[in-house]
Amino acid sequence: MTTRRTFLHGAAAASLASVHPSFAAAPASRDKHPLIIDALGGIDNMNLPSVRRDDPAADFGIDARSLADAKASGLNAFNMTIGYVFGDADPYEKTLADIKSWNALIQRRSADLLLVRSVADIRRAQNENRIGVILGFQNASMMGKDARRVEVFAKGGVRVVQLTYNGPNQLGDGAMVPANKGLSPFGREVVAELNRNHMLVDLSHSGEQICLDAIGASTSPIIISHTGCRAIADLPRNKTDKELRLVAEKGGFVGIYFMPFLAMGRQPLAADLVAHIEHAIHICGEDHVGIGTDGTVTPIDDMKTYLKGLEDEVRQRRAAGISAPGERPDIVPFLPDLTGRDKFRKLADLLAKRGHSSSRIEKILGTNFLRVADGIWS
Fold first, then answer.
1. Residues 39, 45, 50, 53: is their CA dihedral positive or negative?
2. C-alpha–C-alpha distance, residues 24 and 33, integer Å
3. How many domains, the chain?
4. What are the protein's UniProt keywords (predicted)?
5. In Å, how far are 56, 162, 242, 290 from 82, measured between CA atoms?
6. Where are the alpha helices (DSSP H) in 23-163?
7. Residue 115 near residue 328 (C-beta atoms within 8 A)
8. Which residue, 250, 156, 154, 256, is CA-closest to 204?
9. Quick count: other Cβ atoms within 10 Å of Cβ 89?
10. 329: which residues sit within 8 A by CB, 6+ positions away?
11. Using the 8-state DSSP alphabet, how is residue 198 labeled?
12. Closest residue by Cα to residue 17 from 29, 9, 25
């Protein structure tokens, strides 16, 4: 079953080379661009049928167009959700199958993609005009009752593990569980194994208590790969200032998403994203904030058909009990004025116009994630 991210992201924006001249270079010179790392995202073509985007034989919806768009955007690496997230599949078997399929895909498309096991691989992808693929989970249900499975996943190339999705699992409660149970004894075992195997602990989608507990339990910095700030939009998928501050104090990273949860009761826009980034910087400091778009690059061609699919998806998620407040059929899960090949350039421009320095913007676009990952994956 697909994740929430397999929903759209479309429409193009303007070139912003005046703010970052290095962005003006052609794709062949991508090594000269500011480093861009999407802490949670994708590069599939959302115009393809969803069955193709779920099919390893169809390269999970990654086609020539979507690869060209991703490279033109300046993207150097992204955290790709694989494995079990929710649904009826066996979590462990589904996850093992996905690891095998993604490793095979990356090998098959090695001229364009590179499996990321270390920060050196991200730099290599940047220098070789490839895109680094960071394999990550958005649920830890596949651990079953055996925390030693972490080592199996690490050997398969997984580098990021999110402890919960919106609901509960054996580690603790996700953001939509009223009980807000914290990190279970088994959850502490898993966190310890993630630390031992040099994997990033991700607290996106988590309930507040498990987030606070995991920050304390981890001996390494943790990340929240894709979230917003609850002080701006009081929704469960966003994080409180307390959570954000503790992540930063631990030396970690917070990625802000391009999602409906950036605003209350309306379609969010690029200005809302900037507001969340600025609030996160105020709470965490500029060395701990970046982006985790929860989206892809290629724009949608047929918005009418897409919106019909979105209506069905929202209805299905609500029926399954995995929907979060802010998910609505009349609010698209992307930012309409910050999409397509130029979305990262446009974000850089918006931040520059707000007075943020080039060095800070480069931190937000990628080097903050790189620094935290380097300390864990080394």
1. negative
2. 8
3. 1
4. Signal
5. 11, 11, 29, 21
6. 50-53, 64-72, 91-108, 119-127, 149-155
7. no
8. 256
9. 16
10. 307, 310, 311, 314, 315
11. T
12. 25
User: What DSSP state is assigned to residue 158?
Assistant: E
Per the structure block, which two tokens stand in for 173? 């409660």
110-131: pLDDT as tens digits: 999 999 999 999 999 999 999 9
Domain of residue 36: give its range: 21-377
List pLDDT tens digits, range 79-95: 999 999 999 999 999 99
pLDDT in tens, 277-318: 999 999 999 999 999 999 999 999 999 999 999 999 999 999
* DSSP result, 6-63: SS---------TTT-GGGGS-GGGGGGSPP-EEEEE----TTS-HHHHT-GGGGGG--
Say how far apart CA 224 and CA 239 lie, in whole Å. Answer: 9
Is the CB of residue 42 less than 8 Å from the CB of residue 67? no
Structural domain includes residue 296: yes
Amino acid, single-letter form, for residue 46: M
What CATH number does residue 55 fall under?
3.20.20.140
- Has residue 162 been placed in a domain? yes
Whether the CB-CB separation of 70 and 62 falls below 8 Å is answered with no
